[in-house]
Amino acid sequence: MQLLQNKQRTLLILFILLFSNQVLAQQNVALPLVKSTIKGINIYGKTVDNQTRCQHWHSDLDVIAIKFKCCEKYYPCFSCHEEEADHEPQVWPKTEFDAKAILCGVCGTELTISEYQKSGNTCPKCTAAFNPGCSKHYHLYFETEDK
Ligand SMILES: [Zn+2]
Ligand SMILES: [Zn+2]
Ligand SMILES: [Zn+2]
């Protein structure tokens, strides 16, 4: 009898495990969908083309995506992350400015944050022009002096 109870308990635990896995799988479906891929790198958010432009920012110069520190996913902009991610964004601390977190939508090169900030708004690889206006929004993505 004792043995049987143990067996039943094991089955119950198995059942719970299976069930919780299913819940996890369902949550995965609700995660933001990849709409655009550049050289094998997924871009999330409300992209409108294959150069990282999105519904919020889509001028000729809006050709970079930013990898968010919180989820390590590339989004075209802060608003895309805000509307599709299920969590608060985190900015990159200065100690991690050597992380590759900027994607050039034209050539698909990943730049580190320092490389990007030193780039003079031009892709060092393909010379595509980046939007200089992005620097006004650094604080949304990177740790800055004036906080
Ligand atoms: Zn995130
Ligand atoms: Zn956007
Ligand atoms: Zn480039």
UniProtKB/TrEMBL annotation:
Indicate whether Zinc appears among the record's keywords. yes
Protein name, please?
Uncharacterized protein, contains Zn-finger domain of CHY type
Q: Which PROSITE patterns match?
A: ZF_CHY
Check the record and name the PANTHER family matching this protein.
Answer: HELPER OF TIM PROTEIN 13 (PTHR28082:SF1), ZINC FINGER PROTEIN (PTHR28082)
Leader sequence segment = 1-25
What UniProt keywords are attached to this protein's entry? Metal-binding, Signal, Zinc, Zinc-finger
Q: Which organism's genome codes for this protein?
A: Algoriphagus winogradskyi
Organism ancestry: Bacteria, Pseudomonadati, Bacteroidota, Cytophagia, Cytophagales
Q: Which residues form the CHY-type domain?
A: 47-128
